[in-house]
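Journal club prep — side note

Before the paper discussion, L.F. wants everyone to see what a predicted structure for a comparable chain looks like in token form. Sequence:
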Amino acid sequence: MSKHPLEPSNLWLSFTIGNREAFTAIYSAYVGTLYEYGMRMLKDEDQVGDCIHDLFTKLWANHKTIGKTDNIRFYLLGALRNTMMSYKAREDRLPKEEFHHPDDFVLDFNAESARVKKEENQAQSHLISAALEQLTGRQKEIIYLKYFEEMNYEEIAEMMNITVKGAYKLSARALDALKIIMNVDKAVVLWMLLQYKSQLF
């Protein structure tokens, strides 16, 4: 019996030719990431679960016509984002472009993850968490994608349906806002974001 391929590109290829084991492996590997991202946009477990279910149902139904990808995580996050925006538009009877609102994206890691590991770092975690909550929805989203999902600006631009230049500008504005809110240098903001991520993940 041949060993199931673990390389992302091979796993995706196996899925597209109808390998259910590969499909299940993809689901198992990425459902946690999709759920975390989904909860920050919809903030409702049932809705997020429905969207993830719809996404994977459509993936399997269309597996023969789905193109190649060497970044499964990026592909799935983008597909889930589109699924959620369509879901929200149907629920609210709003066009997709009106989905984003300053309060639409949540970066309250403490409420969902509760993974702050060291007591001595809690004050710093609360500081950066409180500062993040003062950002707009799109600023929160780009901070999450850039510094927590570690996407590049090209991927972020595609995800958020903006230009690469727009992604750079939005990220810069978000960092400037954090700098002002916390009254620290930009380098300190970046360091605190990395520390915050390491404590949570």
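L.F.'s comment for the group: The CA atoms of residues 18 and 136 lie 42 Å apart. Keep this in mind when we get to the figures.
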